[in-house]
Specification:
single chain, alpha+beta, Ribosomal Protein S5, domain 2, Alpha-Beta Plaits, 2 domains, 7-stranded mixed beta sheet, 4-stranded antiparallel beta sheet, 10 helices, 28% strand, globular
């Protein structure tokens, strides 16, 4: 699948923005035979982005990151590049630089977004004849959330989250992102949830939320938002529960956990309320606070 186009020379580069996401809805429908869980989730990209720079090299594969602990061989940027290179037989290399802004291990999908952005960027930089379906199949090998970030915007995810249906969401909303000074292991949350699932009243569905998103009705979006994992995470991490309560009391339409946490986000209809809450929370040095908005589609500069 080598490119039919004229090749770019070493030194050519791309600069891309790699956006975060929130889960406006997430329900777990049971454990599968392969050990994964069937879920129903609604993804939404937000305008909080890492920066990724790709520079073409003769054959070298280099990776650097502004956060030292993420500068490893297992980083999803480098894994995505190596996977695409192996799948296409591409001989040229790339130097990747990741400017990390999205809080990691917090439920905002930064690593998955980085992987998808690297795949998209290298398809262009290496000028590869790889179609969207082929890129999607590669993305699935890197993680359940990675395929979503190839299209971004708003989407319903089923299966393990990689069976995607786009949602034509109307409107854009202010979102306040808060990362408490704790991290949560996804495996630990799922393990605790398996016991709790048997006692629940019944599964929630995302239909009300999707209807609200399609109509752009803020109160319906907030009423339909839901995260099953809150029943596990909040008792495990009181600081996360405290941040959620602060956001609920700040004029937000809804405040909730994103993914399996530990990050929390709140939706606001009034920008002034979002700004006031951000200023108030930003005075707490233990919290990472970001004021941002929902976005549609792929962002590239």
């Amino acid at each position: 699948m080598n490119s039919p186009y004229s090749e770019k020379r070493p030194g050519a580069h791309l600069k891309l923005r790699s956006p975060a996401k929130v889960n406006l809805f997430i329900e777990v429908h049971g454990r599968r035979e392969d050990g994964y869980h069937d879920i129903e989730t609604v993804f939404q990209t937000i305008d909080l982005c890492d920066g990724i720079s790709l520079r073409l090299t003769d054959s070298e594969m280099d990776f650097a990151c502004t956060v030292g602990e993420l500068e490893t061989e297992s980083n999803l940027c480098l894994r995505a590049a190596n996977l695409l290179r192996a799948a296409t037989g591409e001989n040229r290399g790339v130097a990747i630089h990741l400017d990390k802004r999205i809080p990691w291990a917090a439920g905002f999908g930064g690593g998955s977004s980085n992987a998808a952005t690297t795949l998209l960027g290298l398809r262009e930089l290496w000028q590869l004849d790889v179609n969207d379906a082929e890129l999607h199949n590669l993305a699935r090998q890197l993680g359940a959330d990675v395929p979503f970030f190839l299209r971004q915007g708003c989407a319903l995810g089923r299966g393990i989250g990689d069976e995607l249906t786009p949602i034509d969401a109307r409107g854009e909303w202010e979102i306040l992102i808060v990362k408490p000074p704790v991290s949560i292991r996804t495996a630990e949350v799922y393990a605790a949830l398996d016991c709790e699932v048997m006692q629940r009243d019944g599964p929630r569905t995302s239909s009300a939320l999707i209807s609200g998103l399609a109509d752009g009705i803020f109160r319906e979006i907030c009423a339909g938002a839901y995260n099953r994992f809150e029943s596990v995470v909040m008792p495990l991490q009181p600081v996360v529960a405290r941040v959620k309560r602060i956001l609920q009391d700040s004029g937000a339409g809804v405040a909730m956990l994103s993914g399996t946490g530990s990050g929390v986000f709140a939706l606001y209809e009034q920008p002034s309320a979002a700004h006031e809450a951000a200023c108030r929370l930003d005075r707490n040095g233990d919290l990472q606070v970001f004021l941002t908005r929902t976005i549609r589609g792929i962002v590239m500069t």
